[in-house]
């Protein structure tokens, strides 16, 4: 708990008991069968210690960077812990509302963290001038969880400084068609981009992600990482999800999510949203949100509470984008409870 916000609360705590899951942002119907086959085939190698070379090379090729700019991690969450351990910032700033794990990791490592809180009346859009000039470690999500706002790459680039570590969490970037504002592979001093295979590929239980950064920063992060941090099955997933077939499938999934998100927003009716949502989830503001969330649970649907995100309160709810038939069933219950 930090300043009244439960930074350790995540959407998986909202689901269970047969509820339809609109609280966790993992794509429906994943992992695909071909990916399960690739992971299963790796199980015959479990007696050997994991070797990362092939997976690192695959991820590097996927983003057009050299292998020394890639660090594989046990999910994006481990990357935040490594950042908190490897660097010694004097002034850490986290841009909120956003995924709370980066701030939790920094605080757990003993860092003092300041917050820049974006405002709903501004559409939760970043103004680079809001970030203190003396901040030497800045963390921001793009697209941001839970606001679903996609910040301009130029605005993020403006945050870069020669003496600053700029961490951009792109865990949901592959759910945006064309990844137009991605900084993955960019040569920007101090830039650390974090990616996850959890959301698009349904691998939350496998724990696999990676960092893209300059070789020197990767070395610093690797120095505080345990040996063999990524399992053999997770390495197989990293290879499989980086090839041309997987990239093409993810691109099609992003287009599907775009369509499904429009359908979700249309189905909810006149509910206030802020900004232009681009991620596989939407953030809505509704009076009596906490009571509504419990009523939805009673009717069989789990949505993500918003009051654990700094900058939000109990009248904010995050709703995952799902296929149209799931959305239609949810929207009927939503309208019954809100009209």
Task: Tell me about this structure.
With 339 residues, this protein is of the alpha/beta class. Helices cover 35% and strands 16% of the residues. The protein has 11 helices and 11 strands. A 7-stranded mixed sheet has the order 2-8-7-6-5-3-4. The protein starts with 19 loop residues before the first strand and ends with a helix. The model has no long low-confidence stretch (mean pLDDT 96).
Question: How are the secondary structure elements laid out?
Answer:
Elements: E1 20-22, H1 33-41, H2 53-63, E2 70-73, H3 75-86, E3 92-96, H4 101-108, E4 113-117, E5 137-141, H5 153-158, E6 165-169, E7 191-196, H6 198-201, E8 209-213, H7 215-223, H8 232-240, H9 244-268, E9 281-285, H10 289-298, E10 301-305, E11 316-320, H11 324-338
Parallel strand pairs: 1-10, 3-4, 3-5, 5-6, 6-7
Antiparallel strand pairs: 2-8, 7-8, 9-11, 10-11
Mean pLDDT reading:
96
Sheet with most strands: 7 strands, mixed
Helix/strand order? EHHEHEHEEHEEHEHHHEHEEH
* Helical stretch tally: 11
* Poorly predicted residue ranges: none
Helix content: 25-40%
- Straight-line distance between termini: 35 Å
Shape: globular
Strand segment count? 11
Q: What radius of gyration results from the CA coordinates?
A: 19 Å
Give the spatial strand order of the biggest sheet: 2-8-7-6-5-3-4
Helix/strand-derived category reads alpha/beta
Portion in beta strands:
15-25%
């Amino acid at each position: 708990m930090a300043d009244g916000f439960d930074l350790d609360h995540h959407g998986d705590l909202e689901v269970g008991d047969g509820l339809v899951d609109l609280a966790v942002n993992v794509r429906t119907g994943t992992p695909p069968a071909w990916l399960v086959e690739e992971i299963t085939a790796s199980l015959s190698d479990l007696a050997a210690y994991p070797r990362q070379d092939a997976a690192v090379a695959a991820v590097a090729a996927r983003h057009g960077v050299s292998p020394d700019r890639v660090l594989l991690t046990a999910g994006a969450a481990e990357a935040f812990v490594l950042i908190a351990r490897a660097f010694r910032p004097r002034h850490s700033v986290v841009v909120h509302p956003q995924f709370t794990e980066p701030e939790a990791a920094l605080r757990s490592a003993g860092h003092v963290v300041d917050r820049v809180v974006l405002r709903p009346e501004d559409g939760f859009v970043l103004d680079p001038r809001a970030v203190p000039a003396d901040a030497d470690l800045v963390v921001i999500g793009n697209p941001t969880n839970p606001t679903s706002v996609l910040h301009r790459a130029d605005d993020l680039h403006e945050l870069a400084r020669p003496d600053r570590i700029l961490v951009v969490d792109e865990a949901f970037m592959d759910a945006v068609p064309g990844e137009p504002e991605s900084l993955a592979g960019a040569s920007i001093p101090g830039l650390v981009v974090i990616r996850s295979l959890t959301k698009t590929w349904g691998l939350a239980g496998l724990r696999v992600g990676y960092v893209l950064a300059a070789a020197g920063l990767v070395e610093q992060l690797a120095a505080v990482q345990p040996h063999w941090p990524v399992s053999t099955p997770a390495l197989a997933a990293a290879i499989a999800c980086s090839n041309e077939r997987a990239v093409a499938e993810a691109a099609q999934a992003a287009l599907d999510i775009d369509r499904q998100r429009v359908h979700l927003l249309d189905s909810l009716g006149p509910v206030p949203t802020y900004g232009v949502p681009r991620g596989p989830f939407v953030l809505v503001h509704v009076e009596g949100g906490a009571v509504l969330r419990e009523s939805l649970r009673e009717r069989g649907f789990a949505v993500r509470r918003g009051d654990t995100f700094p900058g939000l309160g109990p009248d904010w709810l995050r709703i995952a984008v799902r296929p149209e038939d799931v959305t239609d069933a949810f929207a009927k219950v939503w309208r019954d409870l809100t009209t």
